[in-house]
Amino acid sequence: MSTPPATAISAPGKVFLAGGYLVLDRAYNALVFGLSARIHVLVEDIDTSSGVQLSEIVVQSPQFREATWNYGYRLADEQGGVEVTHLQGSPPATSSRNPFVETALAYALTYIASISEARISPAKVTILADDDYYSQPTQATLVTKDNFTDFNLRFADVHKTGLGSSAALVTAFTGAVLSHYLTPSQFSLTSAEGRTKLHNLAQAAHCAAQGKVGSGFDVAAAVYGSCVYRRFSPSILESTGEPGSAGFLTRLQQLVDSADKWDYEIDPDSATIPSGTALVMCDVDCGSQTVSMVKKVQVWQKADPVGSRALSDELHKRNRALATILESGDLSGVTEAFAAIREKIREMGQKSDVPIEPVEQTELLDTLTKNEGVFGGVVPGAGGYDAIVLLVKNDEATLAALKESLSKISASGTNVKLLKTKGEMEGARTEDGTKYGQWLTNQC
Ligand SMILES: Nc1ncnc2c1ncn2[C@@H]1O[C@H](COP(=O)(O)OP(=O)(O)OP(=O)(O)O)[C@@H](O)[C@H]1O
Ligand SMILES: C[C@@](O)(CCOP(=O)(O)O)CC(=O)O
């Protein structure tokens, strides 16, 4: 009997162009773009024809070493939902846990159990990520097969580029598991209702795995692609509880299915990349980012509520002006719009004593914006030293000149690299499960 193709879903990474920090407050919205860099999640049934009835799901990330996680699952008493246990199996199963995978699995299986009587059969889940999510070791010769690179590294040794791998992973994982176990009438990624459910479930799982409630812009972009985003009130997720706790199944099902519980606003039509242009990203290898940036900005906001509100209002006005220019497609004034945003971001950084646009990044952005065909750019999201994003003319000559400028800059100190990924409009989507060739174990 031939093996059915894997259920495959992919979700994009993100670049946060305008509205970092402000978006944590529902008074402001954010301009976020999805990226062509995607994470793909494939689900295949495990053959139990030998009569063995396992309750086991194996998750593997075969581009990395020691990246196989085995999970047992069981329906907990008192409507506690599906409890997932990380099994310490023999190698290749890894002993270190992956909170994003584990939580996404428990949340997805619990939601499935809340709306379906069907048995959850054993399965193998494969995660494949675009190269751009991780900085590649400079000396190593890496093997790429069927479009994905074997990084030959353990997760602990990987440097991420900050494209939102965890949000893309949780979204694609949740979508793939729901699509695999539910019928199209119970869940379909192509319907508006299905997307809403995927968003709500992935948002809840991602916050739980992170151990904090962020604005959720990264999950919104992973589900809907480029959009103007206003966050949900954090209180919505306060009483969901833990998988296994009494009533978790009912609470999660209501959270996912009751659209009126949520107050986020997601508008994919108002985030536009003008025709003939591209949003590109440069990975900057220049020291690490301060982890407590958000906390420090909040300390400043508390200490100076009036001043910080006035600055945020002005920055928001400038963010909206950029969004309007991009939407109009008429790029006159776009360079000034980027500069105006950066001016206020630097002021916010000085006032809060946070390197949102540190001086090294100011120099880099100023230098690159002088290039023919580069309209402007910013330090995305929370800012810091890790990356910059540029709006450029989408042609070979501009990209070649940009690469040349970056290699000159790299030769004189800071290592800066143009990533292959570009801004893209589309969110999570169903993929053809037969196109992953050698990465699928059933076909090895
Ligand atoms: N290919 C993958 N396979 C399995 N787990 C992954 C994969 N990629 C990322 N993850 C999980 O996501 C974690 C990284 O998430 P984190 O939120 O720290 O980074 P990010 O989302 O890429 O970055 P940022 O939020 O700065 O944009 C990893 O430690 C791992 O648990
Ligand atoms: C600072 C913040 O507004 C954006 C962080 O963005 P990034 O992870 O740096 O892309 C935090 C958030 O929105 O959750």
From TrEMBL:
Keywords: ATP-binding, Kinase, Lipid biosynthesis, Lipid metabolism, Nucleotide-binding, Steroid biosynthesis, Steroid metabolism, Sterol biosynthesis, Sterol metabolism, Transferase
EC identifiers of the protein: 2.7.4.2
GO CC, one annotated term: peroxisome
Domain GHMP kinase C-terminal: 338-397
Catalytic activity: (R)-5-phosphomevalonate + ATP = (R)-5-diphosphomevalonate + ADP
First-tier enzyme category under EC: transferase
GO biological process: ergosterol biosynthetic process; farnesyl diphosphate biosynthetic process, mevalonate pathway; isopentenyl diphosphate biosynthetic process, mevalonate pathway
Listed InterPro entries: Erg8, GHMP_kinase_C_dom, GHMP_kinase_C_sf, GHMP_kinase_N_dom, Phosphomevalonate_kinase, Ribosomal_Su5_D2-typ_SF, Ribsml_uS5_D2-typ_fold_subgr
GHMP kinase N-terminal domain span: 160-225
Pathway it works in: Isoprenoid biosynthesis; isopentenyl diphosphate biosynthesis via mevalonate pathway; isopentenyl diphosphate from (R)-mevalonate: step 2/3
MF GO annotations: ATP binding; phosphomevalonate kinase activity
Family the entry assigns: Belongs to the GHMP kinase family. Mevalonate kinase subfamily.
The protein's name in its UniProt record: Phosphomevalonate kinase
Organism name: Coleophoma cylindrospora
